[in-house]
Specification:
With 240 residues, the chain is of the alpha/beta class. The chain is built from ten helices and five strands, in the order E-H-E-H-E-H-H-H-E-H-H-E-H-H-H. Helix 1 links the parallel strand 1 and strand 2. The longest helix is centred in the middle third of the chain and has 16 residues. It starts with 7 loop residues before the first strand and ends with a helix. Its EC number is 6.3.4.20. This is 7-cyano-7-deazaguanine synthase. Keywords: ATP-binding, Ligase, Metal-binding, Nucleotide-binding, Queuosine biosynthesis, Zinc.
Length: 240
Amino acid sequence: MTADPGPALVVCSGGLDSVTLAHRLSTEPGGVAALVTFDYGQRHRKEIEFAARCAKRLGVAYEVIDLSDVGRRIAGSALTDSEDVPDGHYSSETMAVTVVPNRNPLMLTAAFALAGGRGIARVAAAMHTGDHVIYPDCRPAFVDAFQAMEDTALDGVASINLETPFIHWSKTDIAAEAGRLGVPIAETWSCYKGEAVHCGRCGTCVERLEALHDAGVEDPTEYADRDFWREEIARWQGRS
């Protein structure tokens, strides 16, 4: 029998990846202690709302950590500044403007502090291979370096492991896992634009629609444009 590793603190944005991670861990030994999300001055709060829904659904505690003052001071990102969120394929070409410098180190440092104060020995985050080319703080090298930093920072104080079970998974792998676990897809929020419904045109929407389609998972999410992703994928395939 696998030893109980103790419950995990899950960093949850309310998106498909982190909500699927929370559902997955809730079924495994140790379970989930709480979900933590962050207000970092992003252009909308819809993702925070969907993270709260996930916590309620799983019956676990929920924390929102306010980093908004820091976020408001970070210029040049479409997520925290006046830059427009681009439409199109999820790639370095379209998504570079969504990089928020040092976002994951800021969030994970806060999550580790929260976990250390509460005696939680695991912090889990949902980075995956699709993020590697765009976001340097989603890559395996960052995960290893951050763990080494925290091992030093907490030496003699606490022992906390950073768990990233999706780090070598594709978005389609995660979509398939969401289907296997019965994650309510429409109760996750991916769109960076934060309008009344998913736009269906930004990089995160295109990536989401493609992954769920390729995984054969039904997607009842409402999109303003449900067909754009097919045209965009065909256009990109034509470029190769």
